[in-house]
Write a structure and sequence with these properties.
The chain has about 120 residues and is mainly β. The chain has no helices and nine strands.
Length: about 120
């Protein structure tokens, strides 16, 4: 396999605005994903993303599954309820992915560690 691209989608609780943040997913276990809210993420992009407004993470998606089985979403370095997922369940080619409802506060930093 090879590294792949993905997206994390957040919905602003107050305005209902949607934020789509690009992710770079390395093809290796025990690696951090990188994020870029304004373009394609790459190896040199930051490994955390600051949440701009009180939001709910509603989806995490990828185009192809990397070697890693899944990931653990962390908020301010702590694992959150519902934050452990498998890449096979997050493929954007699936007609239906499980809904995510992970609240995050404005100013929080999120990161994803692959496993």
């Amino acid at each position: 396999m090879a590294a792949s691209a993905g997206t994390i989608i957040l919905r602003d609780i107050k305005s209902n605005r949607t934020y789509s943040v690009d992710m770079y997913i390395p093809d290796a276990v025990a690696t951090l994903l990188t994020f870029n809210p304004s373009g394609l993420a790459g190896t040199s992009s930051p490994s955390d993303y600051r949440i701009p407004a009180d939001s709910v993470i509603v989806d995490i998606t990828t185009s192809t599954a990397p070697t890693a089985v899944g990931g653990t979403l962390k908020v301010n370095s702590g694992v959150v309820n519902g934050g452990v997922f498998r890449w096979a369940d997050r493929l954007n080619t699936l007609s239906k992915r499980a809904d995510l409802v992970i609240p995050v506060q404005a100013g929080s930093f999120i990161s994803v560690l692959q496993h």
